[in-house]
Write a structure and sequence with these properties.
Helix content is 61%, strand content 10%. The protein is an alpha/beta fold. The protein is elongated.
């Protein structure tokens, strides 16, 4: 870009900024708190057709009158207003698209207080990014993972009809956001910079880059679907590992496990046996699914090796469900032993009455 073109760009940008200030004076005096240049003109990565990204911060709702979308020549512009609450939410770092808080070049502030307020909010984000991962980071990453799973459902539902590329893009956006968050990184160069920025992140799920790239290809639908599913699974395992490091589960001690074995027997054992005896496949499947959920909930709370899932045969054959549950309970009993617990059993009602009535408080 030659110097004349560059100067013309900056002259146009300055006139747009001055126009915002003039409109504020006319329509909403004292509502405009701050203007900052962000995006490509802040990073220096601009070109002849770059639009001006302005962070316009307003102090009250009257300032929304400054919002305006327009086309100048053959370049589109969108002037959006942000409240201070918007910026505070961005500093909470639920999304990696928060570079506006880090690269903003302030060109107008109503007073020193508004300038300092913006600096304070930016510093909150900077301190967070410089700190170790938190439970909230992991929770936000899980939220993006769930969005990717929903998009995968859309991909599968679309089939080969041609509507699936949109779902693929949603998957890529959601999983990339999760990866940025658990690296305490932000998207610095817009969407087009994401593939390169991902390459330089210190931690990535298995095969993330190759699978990510493969989804932006003309592969057949079935291969796209398989790559998307693998990418989601790998990212889920990667997030789980980070979550375990940040929020390690409590040890499987007696306090956490007491009564759970007996509850499993109470809720599921005889139902599964009855389902097998009557060949009631619905009762068998739903009971086994409830047992699996129970295992997952206990395993999510404590660090214990539990049978989190049953195979397809256990779900399809009531008799196989009984056998699978029995094996799972043997594994569970071993965890009871490890925690120093004995399964609470009585040989008779008399034994129960005597023990229950005269027992000391547990």
């Amino acid at each position: 870009m030659n110097e004349q073109t560059k100067q013309a760009l900056f002259e146009k940008n300055n006139r747009i900024i001055e126009a915002v200030k003039a409109r504020a004076e006319r329509l909403c005096p004292a509502a405009l708190d701050l203007i900052a240049v962000t995006g490509s003109f802040a990073s220096g990565d601009y070109h002849e057709k770059s639009d001006l990204d302005l962070l316009i911060v307003i102090g009250d709702d009257r300032g929304f009158a400054l919002s305006h979308c327009f086309i100048l020549g053959d370049v589109g512009y969108d002037l959006y207003c942000h409240t201070w609450e918007h910026l505070e939410n961005a500093a909470a770092y639920e999304s990696p698209f928060v570079s506006k808080l880090l690269d903003a070049q302030i060109v107008y502030s109503r007073n020193d207080a508004t300038h300092q307020r913006f600096t304070d909010i930016s510093d909150i984000l900077r301190r967070h990014l410089a700190s170790p991962l938190t439970a909230s980071d992991c929770a936000h990453a899980v939220g993006h993972l769930q969005a990717a799973k929903q998009a995968y459902f859309d991909l599968a539902a679309a089939g080969e009809s041609g509507g699936y590329p949109y779902a693929v893009c949603k998957i890529l956006h959601a999983l990339s956001s999760a990866v940025y968050l658990l690296n305490h990184a932000v998207v610095c160069h817009g969407v087009r910079g994401i593939p390169t920025e991902l390459e330089h992140l210190p931690s990535l799920p298995d095969a993330f880059l190759s699978l990510h790239a493969s989804l932006i290809t003309d592969l057949p639908y079935d291969k796209i679907q398989m790559a998307a599913m693998t990418l989601i699974r790998n990212t889920e395992r990667w997030i789980s590992a980070h979550l375990e490091n940040v929020c390690p589960r409590a040890p499987a001690d007696a306090e956490h496990l007491r009564g759970t074995y007996e509850e499993l027997v109470s809720n599921y054992q005889n139902k599964l046996s009855r389902a097998a005896a009557t060949d009631d496949r619905y009762l068998s499947q739903m009971t086994l699914a409830s047992a699996q959920l129970f295992f997952e909930e206990v395993g999510g709370a404590v660090n214990v090796l539990l049978p989190h899932s049953f195979d397809a045969s256990a779900y399809s054959i009531p008799g196989a469900a009984v056998d699978a549950f029995r094996l799972a309970m043997e594994q569970y009993a071993a965890q009871y032993d490890k925690a120093g617990l004995a399964v609470c059993r009585y040989d008779s009602t008399d034994a129960f009455e005597n023990a229950y009535i005269h027992a000391k408080t547990e």
